[in-house]
Automatic annotation (TrEMBL):
<dbReference type="InterPro" id="IPR033932">
    <property type="entry name" value="YtcJ-like"/>
</dbReference>
<dbReference type="InterPro" id="IPR013108">
    <property type="entry name" value="Amidohydro_3"/>
</dbReference>
<dbReference type="Pfam" id="PF07969">
    <property type="entry name" value="Amidohydro_3"/>
</dbReference>
<protein>
    <submittedName>
        <fullName>Amidohydrolase</fullName>
    </submittedName>
</protein>
<dbReference type="GO" id="GO:0016810">
    <property type="term" value="F:hydrolase activity, acting on carbon-nitrogen (but not peptide) bonds"/>
</dbReference>
<dbReference type="InterPro" id="IPR011059">
    <property type="entry name" value="Metal-dep_hydrolase_composite"/>
</dbReference>
<keyword id="KW-0378">Hydrolase</keyword>
<dbReference type="InterPro" id="IPR032466">
    <property type="entry name" value="Metal_Hydrolase"/>
</dbReference>
<feature type="domain" description="Amidohydrolase 3">
    <location>
        <begin position="54"/>
        <end position="536"/>
    </location>
</feature>
Length: 541
């Protein structure tokens, strides 16, 4: 396949497999003026061959809708791609060595940036101490965020650059930084990143996303996460350069937050508007104490604050959205949204499609409330793959019984709750097929969903989450956002074997998808197209 970044008026793709509900046996597709114009069989494609500007021979490849990653921190993702990545460090000593080598290799950096340490996976079971980091960096400023990005460790030199941090909530000498102290140190570290570095990081992240068949990302920004310049710079970059679409959310409260979100070009005052923190950092807000700590985490917003924000957003015609992980935090969101519905009307709240990010600790009651209130669950299946299971971090923090209840994707779907899948990158990597696999092969079997349902949540689900029901699938009239894949035989996989057997019967009309059985090879992206414009072509294809 040869690269074509110019937008042809009309393109015919043929000789492959086209994943489309319009024709489960489609092998060809016509794209015109940035939209899907037709899907159908190889024989019918002959009628279009002479009237198109370009014909692409798929050579047996699979064409699917492009993925949407519904929760991304783009600049942080780019900085992780170009900075120090500790996610593969197997021990504390290995992490310290990586820090020392990184510092030596980057003598000109004003602040050293790293991400991804997870002490719960190390035999030492503790994070790096400040004196160890001071020694490894030669006394230079260093910021190292934990894998969940809700706590961090830093060197003395960086703390000295953040006035008052030692008096801030979340500062405890010798412990990782959380809450206000973490936000202050993170802001200080990221302020040292030059505009040029920031743009290069954003460009690297979007380029990487395109290479994975991702056509859209939802940027979850806010004053406690990044900066206004970072956010507007990203939206401007995405508008000016060929690449994935960027849908921006700005997480700031109330009427002021609504006005700021609108002024910055966001589609909602939503995303990581923190109701609580994260389980790994012991800051997710729980009804009952942690198993390995004598407290219930941290509450940043209560139900009254949630209600006020939802009312302000609904009346302004913007989406509201909240970061809520612990069961107490999810309860606060549900109670707050219900109170808002009583004030402005349930129909208006449902029509606004407000969102909840992460929503890991749910109960049958809160799942039913999500369905009633029309809330979208913006979830990250790789969290379960990374932290679930009998020996995972979830069990360590919550005990086996509570841990088994986490991330109940099947129950959400049964209740009719819209799902939008994402990565929370750089918390977990951009990896769309890996994300679909994690949902289909959840560590807790009763929470598994079919590959088809998981794939829909990672394609059409992201579009629906921003109010677009006409996109994320390959049917005439839909945006021509698609990816071309080299993959093995297509199959139908579902948790219930009876469903799987029926779905493979030609009478069911169920289009197949790649085999995502753990250990099987994942598809390789050959080409990504957004709005009819090619944004990625694999070299030598």
């Amino acid at each position: 396949m040869s690269e074509s970044t110019a937008t042809p008026r009309t393109m015919l793709l043929r000789g492959g497999e086209v994943h489309s509900p319009a024709d489960p046996f489609a092998t060809a597709m016509v794209v015109e003026r940035g939209q899907v114009a037709w899907v159908g069989s190889e024989g019918a494609a002959d009628a279009f061959a002479d009237g198109v500007d370009e014909v692409l021979d798929l050579e047996g490849a699979l064409v699917t809708p492009a993925f949407t990653d519904a929760h991304v921190h783009t600049t942080a993702t780019g900085l992780a791609l170009t900075g120090l990545d500790l996610s593969d460090a197997r021990t504390l000593g290995e992490a310290i060595t990586l820090v020392r080598d990184f510092a030596a290799a980057r003598p000109a950096d004003r602040v050293l940036l790293g991400h991804g340490w997870d002490a719960s996976r190390w035999p030492e079971r503790r994070p790096p101490r400040r004196d160890e980091l001071d020694e490894a960096t030669g006394g230079r400023p260093l910021y190292l965020s934990r894998i969940d990005v809700h706590s961090a460790v830093a060197t003395t030199a960086l703390l000295d650059m953040a006035p008052g941090v030692r008096r801030a909530a979340g500062f405890e000498d010798g412990e990782p930084l959380t809450r206000d102290a973490h936000h202050a140190v993170r802001a200080t570290a990221f302020a040292a990143v030059t505009p040029e570095q920031r743009t290069e990081a954003q460009r690297a992240a979007l380029k990487h996303a395109a290479s994975l068949g991702i056509g859209s990302v939802h940027e979850c920004a806010g004053p406690e996460i990044s900066s206004e310049d970072d956010f507007t710079g990203l939206l401007r970059l995405a508008a000016e350069e060929t690449g994935p679409r960027v849908v921006g959310y700005w997480a700031e409260q109330g009427e002021e937050g609504v006005a700021k979100a609108r002024a910055l070009g966001a589609v909602g005052a939503a995303g990581d508007l923190f109701v609580d923190g994260a389980l790994g950092s012991h800051t997710a807000c729980l009804h009952q104490p942690y198993t390995d700590a004598e407290h219930t985490g941290t509450a940043y917003l209560d139900a009254a604050a949630v209600a006020a924000h939802v009312v302000a957003c609904t009346e302004a015609g913007l989406q509201a959205g909240f970061h809520a992980i612990g069961d107490a935090a999810v309860t606060s969101v549900v109670d707050g949204v219900r109170a808002a519905a009583e004030k402005v009307g349930l129909a208006r709240v449902r029509a606004a499609r407000h969102r909840v990010e992460h929503a890991e600790m749910l109960t049958p009651e809160t799942i039913a409330a999500f369905a009633e209130l029309g809330l979208t669950a913006s979830v990250q299946p790789v969290f379960d793959a990374l932290w679930g299971g009998e020996d995972g971090m979830y069990v360590e923090r919550l005990g086996a019984e509570r841990a088994r209840a986490l991330n109940p994707f099947a129950a959400l779907l049964r209740a009719g709750v819209p799902l939008a899948f994402g990565s929370d990158s750089p918390v977990t990597p951009l990896d769309p097929w890996g994300t679909v696999r994690a949902a289909a092969f959840h560590r807790t079997p009763e929470h598994r969903v079919s590959v088809r349902a998981a794939f829909t949540a990672h394609t059409r689900g992201g579009w629906r989450a921003v109010g677009r029901d006409d996109a994320g699938l390959l049917v005439p009239g839909a945006p021509a956002d698609y990816a071309v894949w080299r993959t093995d035989e297509l199959v139908v996989q579902a948790p219930d074997d009876r469903v799987a057997r029926w779905s493979t019967d030609p009478r069911s009309g169920t289009p197949g998808l790649p085999d995502l059985t753990p250990g099987a090879r994942l598809p390789v992206c050959l080409r990504t197209v957004v709005g009819g414009r090619t944004v990625f072509v694999r070299p030598d294809e």
